[in-house]
C-alpha cells in the first residue's frame, strides 16, 4: 500500500487508528482458548468487529512466537485472512528486527514476501545496513524505532551527543536519509507527546506510528496537536485497550465499541484540521 | 548452563568456538534441499561433525523464520536435537529481540521456556525494561548487543555523548548493572578487535560473544590478545566460514575441518594463556 492509498483510507474511514493484534489466551473467553487456532479465531472476530474503524493493524510477533510453530502458523493465518477479506487494512508486522545486512535481508523476505505484511518495525541500533534491505521492496515500508513509549527509553534514547542532539533525534535525522516519506515511518511513543514537536522539526513529512495510547497512558488530543502534519501523518495504535477490554464472550463487541470511541475522536480531530 | 559449566567445557574441549547455525538452502547439496526438513537435516549433520570442537552454537532466527512455520518447526527440532544429543553445547538463540517489558516477557518465554535455549541476543535501544524480563530465568543468559561487526555500527554505536563516552560504552556500562557476569554477555564485533581494550575496561568479567571471525574478516589472535580475560571470557562465532565452506555432499566433512582449524588455534591460544 503506498502513501496515497493509505491517505485515501484515512479520509474514507475518518480514522488513523491502528489496532494492535497482540492476543493473550489468558484474557480470552474459555471457549475460544480451546479452539484449534485460538489466536487466529480471536483476531478474526476482532477484525470483523473493528476493521471499518481502523486503517491499520499491527500484530506483534512476540505474541505468536511464544506459542512456537503453532503460534507462527496463526500469524500467517491472520495476515492471509486480512489480505483476503480486508485489503483496505495496512498490516504492520511489529517485529523490531535488525541484524547485519545478510540477515536483515532474510527478515525482509520473511515479513514482506512470505507473510505479505505492508510494513515491519526495525530497531536502529545496528545502523544503515540493518535497515536498508527492508527498503528493497516497492510498496513496502520500514518503521524505525525512534522514541519508544516505555520507561527504558530513558536509558539510551535521550543521551545527548556532543553536538547537543539526543540519540532519538540523531536516529531520526540519519535514518530518514536512508529512505523517504513513502517507504519509511518512525515509532514515537505517545507517552512523550510533547517530544513530537522536536520530531516534526526533523521529519515533517513522514508517517509516525504512535504506540502507547490507552493502556500505556498516552493522550490522543496531545498526540494530534503536536504530531499531525498537513496530510495527517499519524497512525495511532491501541492494543490491549481495544482487544482485551473485555474477556468474556462479548470481547469482540466491546472491542468494536472501544475502537468506535477512538475513531469518533479521530474523526473530530481530522475534521478540525480540515482533513475530512 | 552456568558460568562454571561453560568454563569447564572450554577447558575440556580446549575451544571457545561458537558455530553459527544459519543454514541457507541455496548453499546446500541438492539432495539435502529436497529433504522434508532440509535446515534441520543440514544442522544435524553439521553438529555431528563439529560438536566436539565447539562449546556453543548459535542459530540465527532469521534463517528459520524466512521459511515460515516450516522453518520455525526446524528451529525447534534443531534445539531439541542439541538438548538430546549434545547437552554439553551452549545454545544461543540469535534473535536480537527487544520490546516493551510486557512483550519482552513473551520473547523470554519463547526462547527460554519453549525453545530451551541457554541464551538469547537482545538489542539495547529500548533500555532496561526491554532486557530485564530475560534475566528472570535462573541459569539462562541475555546477550546484549554492544558493538556490532557490520558497517552500520558506525551510524550510532560510536556517537559520543557529552561525557565523552561513546554509545556502545554507555550501553556496556549501564546494561552491565542490570544483571551480572553470570547471566549477561555482550556482543562485540571481531572486526573491531582493538576496541576490546576499552570494552574490557568496562566489563572485565563478562563473557563476550564475538561474531565476525572468518567471513566478516575478524582475526582470532587479535581478538584473544585484546579480549580474553583470566578465565577466557570469550565465545568466538563463525557461521558461513564453517557451515557453508563447501556446498557439495562433503559439506559436513569440510565444516568439521574448518571447525578443527579454529579449535586448534584456540587450543594454542588457551595454552599460551595458561588456561589449559
- Low-pLDDT stretches of chain A are none
Radius of gyration of chain A: 18 Å
What is the name of the CATH superfamily of chain A?
Aldolase class I
Which structural category fits the helices and strands of chain A? alpha/beta
- The top level CATH class name of chain A: Alpha Beta
Q: Let me know the average pLDDT of chain A.
A: 95
Largest β sheet strand count, sense and barrel closure of chain A: 8 strands, parallel, barrel
**How many separate domains of chain A?**
1
Strands in their spatial order, largest beta sheet of chain A: 1-2-3-4-5-6-7-8
Explained architecture:
The structure is a homodimer of 276-residue chains. Chain A has 276 residues and is an alpha/beta fold. Chain A has a single domain, classed as TIM Barrel (Alpha-Beta Barrel). In chain A, 45% of the residues lie in helices and 14% in strands. The first copy, chain A, is built from 13 helices and eight strands. Chain A has helices at residues 3-13, 30-33, 38-50, 62-65, 68-85, 101-114, 128-131, 153-156, 167-176, 196-202, 220-227, 240-243, 251-272; strands spanning 17-20, 56-58, 90-97, 119-122, 141-147, 184-188, 207-210, 234-238. An eight-stranded parallel β-barrel of chain A has the order 1-2-3-4-5-6-7-8, surrounded by four helices. In chain A, helix 3 runs parallel beside helix 5 (68-85) and helix 3 (38-50) crosses helix 13 (251-272). Chain A starts with a helix and ends with a helix. Chains A and B meet through helix 4, helix 5, helix 6, helix 7 and helix 8 of A and helix 4, helix 5, helix 6, helix 7 and helix 8 of B.
